[in-house]
């Protein structure tokens, strides 16, 4: 079952030649989800070989331009390529007002429904469901209202063992009750325990996106047990005071969140353009949390089944 994240943009407010503004694409069996849409996102989608037609939901963390200025171009491209399926965009309040007048300047109206859902997270809560996925928003601490997002698979029922079905001649109509946790009682009155008839389903996988935010220890509780954590690391820790002043984090602080959340893996991103490379970010974070990778544009992270259960 597909569950993977492609880094479309890993830089902060000012893009560089090889690091674009913020955007991630989560691919799943149900649909693709775009998280943030900075300038150049649709070009990065093309470079990644990702089709825009499968995007079923867009999540915007906050209303700073480097996180949503790519939306008008992307929406126009979706219209020109024949999209008719409705599209939902979740963001803090104000995005509709910022985009509507610009889209009205276009010659043609969008041929698909565009739903704006405004949500300023104050606690962790479910904001969307898509087939086998649910999306939760939680508050970050930046200079304006900012959402973090947690995307996770829904729990699946245990898998029925085909050989056991044949062995005990279990009828099809009995399978739903077994999947729901029940035992099977044969025509002879023999009780076959649920555990003998099923194998546990894989633990749901999860991905959390935390950009932009100042460090605050409580954040780890929102993403507890997440398989893959993306956390901004705009600065190295020698600039911790500047990071706090601007509502950002350091690589060291991102690692603290990952460690305290017992995350599976940490990806650092949203780097300041002052850094020509980000190897030092990776080294700094690994001193606290070894399973850390500094984001590179167009890297694709496949999230495997791990048996971990959290968040």
Describe this structure in words.
The chain is of the alpha/beta class. It has 2 domains: 3-156 and 202-302, Metallo-beta-lactamase, Chain A (4-Layer Sandwich); 159-199, no CATH class. It contains 10 helices and 18 strands. It has helices at 41-47, 71-80, 95-104, 162-167, 175-179, 194-197, 219-222, 240-246, 251-261, 279-286, and strands at residues 3-9, 23-28, 32-35, 55-59, 87-91, 114-118, 125-130, 133-139, 147-153, 159-160, 184-185, 191-192, 198-199, 206-210, 228-232, 265-269, 292-294, 300-302. It has a 7-stranded mixed beta sheet. The chain has a 7-stranded mixed beta sheet with strand order 7-8-9-14-15-16-17, covered by helices on one side. Helix 3 (95-104) links the parallel strand 5 (87-91) and strand 6. Helix 9 packs across helix 10. The longest helix is centred in the C-terminal third of the chain and has 11 residues, at 251-261. It is globular. The chain starts with a strand and ends in a 9-residue tail after the last strand. The relative contact order is 0.14. The mean pLDDT is 93.
Secondary structure layout plus pairing:
Elements: E1 3-9, E2 23-28, E3 32-35, H1 41-47, E4 55-59, H2 71-80, E5 87-91, H3 95-104, E6 114-118, E7 125-130, E8 133-139, E9 147-153, E10 159-160, H4 162-167, H5 175-179, E11 184-185, E12 191-192, H6 194-197, E13 198-199, E14 206-210, H7 219-222, E15 228-232, H8 240-246, H9 251-261, E16 265-269, H10 279-286, E17 292-294, E18 300-302
Parallel strand pairs: 3-4, 4-5, 5-6, 14-15, 15-16, 16-17
Antiparallel strand pairs: 1-2, 1-18, 2-3, 7-8, 8-9, 9-14, 10-13, 11-12
Helix pairs in contact: 9-10
Family: Belongs to the RNase Z family.
Domain Metallo-beta-lactamase: 205-271
Catalytic activity: Endonucleolytic cleavage of RNA, removing extra 3' nucleotides from tRNA precursor, generating 3' termini of tRNAs. A 3'-hydroxy group is left at the tRNA terminus and a 5'-phosphoryl group is left at the trailer molecule
């Amino acid at each position: 079952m597909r569950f993977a994240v492609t880094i479309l943009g890993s830089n902060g407010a000012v893009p560089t030649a090889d690091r674009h503004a913020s955007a991630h694409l989560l691919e799943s069996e149900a649909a693709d989800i775009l998280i943030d849409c900075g300038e150049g996102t649709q070009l990065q989608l093309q470079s990644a070989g990702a089709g825009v037609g499968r995007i079923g939901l867009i999540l915007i963390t906050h209303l700073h331009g480097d996180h949503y200025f790519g939306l008008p171009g992307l929406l126009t491209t979706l219209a020109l390529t024949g999209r008719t399926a409705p599209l939902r965009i979740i963001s803090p309040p104000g995005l509709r007002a910022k985009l509507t007048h610009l889209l009205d300047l276009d010659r043609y109206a969008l041929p698909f429904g565009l739903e704006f859902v405004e949500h300023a997270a104050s606690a962790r809560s479910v904001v969307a469901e898509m087939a086998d996925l649910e999306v939760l928003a939680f508050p970050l601490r930046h200079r304006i209202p900012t959402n973090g997002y947690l995307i996770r698979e829904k729990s699946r029922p245990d898998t029925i063992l085909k050989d056991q079905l044949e062995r005990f001649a279990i009828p099809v109509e009995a399978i739903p009750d077994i999947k729901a946790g029940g035992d099977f009682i044969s025509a002879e009155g023999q009780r076959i325990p649920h555990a003998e008839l099923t194998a546990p389903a894989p633990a749901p996988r999860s991905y959390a996106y935390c950009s932009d935010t100042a460090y605050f220890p409580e954040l780890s509780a929102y993403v507890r047990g997440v398989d893959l954590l993306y956390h901004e690391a705009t600065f190295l820790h020698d600039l911790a005071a500047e990071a706090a002043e601007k509502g950002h984090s350091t690589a060291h602080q991102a690692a603290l969140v990952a460690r305290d959340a017992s995350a599976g893996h940490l990806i650092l991103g949203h780097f300041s353009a002052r850094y020509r490379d980000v190897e030092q970010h990776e080294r700094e974070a690994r001193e606290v949390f070894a399973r850390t990778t500094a984001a590179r544009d167009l890297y694709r992270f496949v999230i495997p089944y791990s048996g971990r259960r959290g968040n």
